[in-house]
Amino acid sequence: MTTATGTPGTKDRILDAAEKLFADEGFTATSLRAITTEAGVNLAAVNYHFGSKDRLIEAVFERRLAPLNHERISLLDALEGSDENPSLEGILEAFVGPPLRLHRDTDRGGPTFMRLLGRTLTEPSQAIHEIFVRQFAEIAARFTPALERALPVLPPDEVFWRMHFAIGSMAHTMCDTFRLKLLSAGRCDAGEDIDATIRRLVSFIAAGLRAPVPVDTPGVET
Amino acid sequence: MTTATGTPGTKDRILDAAEKLFADEGFTATSLRAITTEAGVNLAAVNYHFGSKDRLIEAVFERRLAPLNHERISLLDALEGSDENPSLEGILEAFVGPPLRLHRDTDRGGPTFMRLLGRTLTEPSQAIHEIFVRQFAEIAARFTPALERALPVLPPDEVFWRMHFAIGSMAHTMCDTFRLKLLSAGRCDAGEDIDATIRRLVSFIAAGLRAPVPVDTPGVET
DNA sequence: GTCTATATCCTGATAGAC
DNA sequence: GTCTATCAGGATATAGAC
C-alpha cells in the first residue's frame, strides 16, 4: 500500500525492488537478501509480508497484470462501442498497446515490468504459470471473437496459430531493449519512440494475420 | 567426444545432461550436482573438463550453434546458386528452418536444445551474450543483403525492425511447446508436424515483412 | 511490524589420494 | 581421469526479543 504522502510502505518497496531485480537477473538468480537490501528493509520482512519467495513472485505479477488486462478490455470495449466492425489494427493495438506503453511510465518502474513481462511470457516460471493462464483466459475470451470477426476468411485454428506468432513478436519487443539497437548499430531503438514501435509492431502482425491461407494446410478445406 | 561405439564420453554426457536441465529449469536454477547426477558422472568432472559452470554453459551452445548457423548459410548459398533472385519465403525458410527442424532430431536431444535456444534468444544470459552476438554477426552479414534484395521497396532500417519481430515469433515458437496447445484446447500443436509449423511461421513473417511502409514512419521519405 | 540471530541446507569450487 | 572429502559462502526460512 502506498501512503497518501507518496512514500511507499515496506510492502511496495519490496515489490518494487523485486520487480527490478527479477527483470535484470531472473527469478532464481535474485536472492531475498538482494531484494531487501535494494528496498532498504529488513531481510525478515519478505517472509512476514509475503510468506515465501514464490508468493512474492506471484504478488509482483498480481499487482500489475490485472490493471493491464482491464485496460486491454476497456480499449476493446471502446472500440466495439464506436464501431461494430472495428479494424484488425484497432484490435491489435488494444492488445499490444497497454503492455508496450508501460515503457513510458518511468516513474513507477513501467519499463522494468515491461521487460520482466516480456521475458516471462516466453519463459514461464512454474510459480506464475497459473496466474498467466487464468488472466489470459479472460483476455482470450474477449479478443478471440473480435479477431475472428475481423478475419472472416481465416479458419479459427489459424487465428490461434497466428496470434501465437504475434505474441512472440510482442514479447521479444518488450524484453529486448538493447539487442535490436546493438545489431542495427544504433539505427533502431524500440524504446526511443514507443508509439512508433507500437505502430510498426501492429502493422507487422496485422499483415501476418492477413497472410493468405496456405492451400496445403492440414485440416483446412480449400 | 562420442566414441565410435556410440557411447558418449564423460564430456558429452555432461553436455547432454546440462542441455536438458538448462532447458527445463534455466541456468541458475540448475546446479552442477543435478547435472552430474543426471549424467551419471562425478561432481568434480565438470570443473575438470570445463573449468567452471559459466564455461560449461558456453560449451553447451558452442557445440550446437556453429553447425546450426552453417546449415543456414549453406541453405542460403544453395538458394542463391540456383536462382539469383530467391524468394522471400525461401530466404526465411533458410533462416527459421534449421532451428525448428531440431525438433525432429529426438535421438540427439534436438527438441531440448530447440527449447533452450528459444528461451535464450529472448532472455540472453550474460555468460553467452558474446557467443550470440559473434555467431549472429556472421548470419546477419549473409541474410541482411539477401533480405534487402528480396524487399527492394523496404528501407534498410525497416528490415531490421521487422526481422526483430520475426525473430520473436520464431523464438516463441521454439520455446513454447505446450502453451499454444493448452490455450487452443489441443487444436494447435507446433511439435506435431514441424514442417507445417515452419510453413505457417514463414508465411506469417513473410507477410509481416511485406507489410506496407506506414507513411508517418520517422526517417522515411515518401 | 521490525529487528537480530540463527537453523538448515545447498551452492560452486578445489585439494589431494588413487 | 576419476574419486572422496571438504571449504567457504550464500540460500530460504524461522524463532523470539522489542
Quickly count the domains of chain A: 2
Order of helical and strand elements of chain A? HHHHHHHHHH
Assembly context of the chains? homodimer
Query: Residue share in helices of chain A?
Result: 55-70%
Global morphology of chain A = globular
pLDDT < 50 stretches of chain A: none
Features:
Arc Repressor Mutant, subunit A; 222 residues; homodimer; DNA-binding; Tetracycline Repressor, domain 2; globular; 2 domains; mainly alpha
Notes on the protein architecture:
2 copies of one chain form a homodimer. Chain A is mainly alpha-helical and 222 residues long. Chain A folds into 2 domains: 8-51, Arc Repressor Mutant, subunit A, CATH 1.10.10; 57-210, Tetracycline Repressor, domain 2 (Orthogonal Bundle), CATH 1.10.357. Helices cover 69% and strands 0% of the residues of chain A. Chain A is built from 10 helices and no strands. Chain A has helices at 10-25, 32-39, 44-50, 53-82, 88-101, 110-122, 126-150, 156-175, 179-183, 194-209. In chain A, helix 1 (10-25) packs across helix 4 and helix 5 runs antiparallel to helix 10 (194-209). The first copy, chain A, is globular and about 60 Å long. In chain A, 40% of the residues are buried. Chains A and B meet through helix 6, helix 7, helix 8, helix 9 and helix 10 of A and helix 6, helix 7, helix 8, helix 9 and helix 10 of B. The first copy, chain A, binds a DNA duplex (18 and 18 nucleotides) through residues 10, 31-33, 41-49, 52-53.
